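The record is kept unedited without comment:

——
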Amino acid sequence: MNISPQFPVNFAPGTGRRAIQLTKGDFTCYPLYYFIPSFDEGASHLVYHRADAEGVQLHSLDLATGESRQITHGRAEQTRWIPWCTESGPGVLDHRSVLNVVRGQVIYFDGNDARCVNLNGSGDQLLFSLPADRLAIGQNCVQVNGEWFVYIHHDRENHDAVYPPDRAKNRAASKGTALAAFHLDTGEHRNLVFINSPIHHVQPYGEDQLVFCHPATENGMLLTDMKGGWYSHLRTQDDSGGCVCHYIATEAGIAYEVLKGRDGACSGIYDPRSHRSYEFSLPKHFGYTHTGRDPEGRLWIYENSSPETHDLQFLVRHIPEGEDEWLALTGHWPTYGGGQKAHFHPQITPDRNWLLMTGGDAATGTNHMFLLDISDLRDTEGIPNPAGAGAEAG
């Protein structure tokens, strides 16, 4: 990656690890939701949200020059991702945009209008409009070959009743969610799954499959494909009460963490083809956890949010019959505000030398994008391949 020297260099609290600050100012910046790419092909541009007093729009950052360009001009009045994030003001629907890496375009929702724009802000066009009684509610994706936009929408009236912004959510009463696909060349619409349960995230797994979540009464991962008409349960709640929260599609399988179990949190890797998995315990001091995104499945990095600290931890070596070896990548790094904008959401850059994250900037009391230097890390050792011999059965 060619990174401009004009970006200021900071050092991670607690560890002194180098951290390049990509954005700064009296506003909050954060990438696309970390399950999906934010870097274009060649990693020359980074697509991100900027939320300020005027609302939330998408921008494209040229990493070589440091130039940032606003590429959307959404006018939707209600952009909040209910109930998972804080208010953003008018603009594009927060956390629901997708970078089509193959085509160098960004797909976003301006209210019920699904639109597409080039990374330089040109060529903005309408793809389709959802009916007035529907609402785009989840974090979407593009199929690996870039031909299909896969998106989630819900019955508007039921969603407003189940997820009022000022009251607790009631997922079990959710009705009328569709996982759908739109072909970017032919305009074909395809309904893949229709379910009386919210769907929060969808991401591609391999060339033709999709992994999504969460069933209303049993948090977990589900699998379907681009033909649709079916879905299969993967890792769901277990006897200890533990349930999958975040999961990452990787070349080695689906990496995930399981929270709220009686014996504490654990992490794992699941192979949908063999339906085998391998799980291991996370440190007892871990609180709310995000599994970091490594598309190759080689580095196991976690965001840990506990009452004592908000930090990043790297699993150096897993020792099945002993104590795992961990490395702190940061000490306590505060973030500001709440919701999704206050999470690190760590993801490894395409050149594998950096960890893209959203961190707090104490100078302004806002959150911004940083590149944390991880060029010294070597692959995590000791995690068995669940598709191979010796993996534990799921």
About this structure: The longest strand covers residues 45-52.
